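User: I need a structural model of glutathione transferase from Anopheles melas for a docking pre-check later this week. Nothing fancy, just the predicted structure tokens so I can convert them on my end. Input:
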Amino acid sequence: MAPIVLYSTRRTPAGRAVELTAKMIGIELDVQYIDLAKKENMTEEYLKMNPMHTVPTVNDNGVPLYDSHAIIIYLVQKYAKDDTLYPAKDLVKQANINAMLHFESGVLFARLRWILEPVFYWGQTEVPQEKIDSVHKAYDLLEATLKTSGTDYLVGRTITLADISVSTSLCTLNALFPADASKYPLVLAYLKRLEQTMPHYQEINTDRANEALQLYNQKLGKYGSSCMRRIQAVIFGNLDSSSGTTPTSVAMLEMQLKSAIVRLSPTMY
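Assistant: Understood. Predicted structure tokens for glutathione transferase:
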């Protein structure tokens, strides 16, 4: 049987969760990184597999699946040698894992995307303080969760899919906005513990989170260039009359830029 094909990008937390899960259960993936900027997620072939045009998507010998949380549950239930990562019969533990998967998607990743998408694709030069504050609120929630857990991991005494999924977005958020050790000792100890115990964590999580940080810093510098300032000046009608820019052309350009933003914004779940 051919390896499961994973379509993803290197830096997306969602795709990294699938890669980490595969490593944990010992299955091989044929990883194919696609270029969202080139709209490789909008091809006819890709849309047949995933009409949501998100990443990651997997193709398990003709069976396409999308959404990282659905994928990692599927992989464990079908291919894992035991149910440690996602218990089949312990419904309470399973429900608690599901809750943390929703936390990763609705809180951690949502905040990450809220911050990165405008910088990567909209030309934003600064991150509003309210967005940074929202990251710290997420750390507050996770610190409280770890305290309530009373164990080394989010749900029980061993690594589960909750830890795999949460670790990906958390690792990237912490690279961009480091958690204060005095406020979030449990969060930082948790990340360190995962790095030491989860196979290939450094390669798949830490290194790629640092890649995201590097790209983030590059984008902020790029958008601060005179070229971007000129574009922003056009949008807000601040060019002098010698530029030949009219109110009509400004409005048209603004519409074109907004349209481009919608087309280029990545979708990663």
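Before docking, keep this in mind: The two ends are 27 Å apart (CA to CA).
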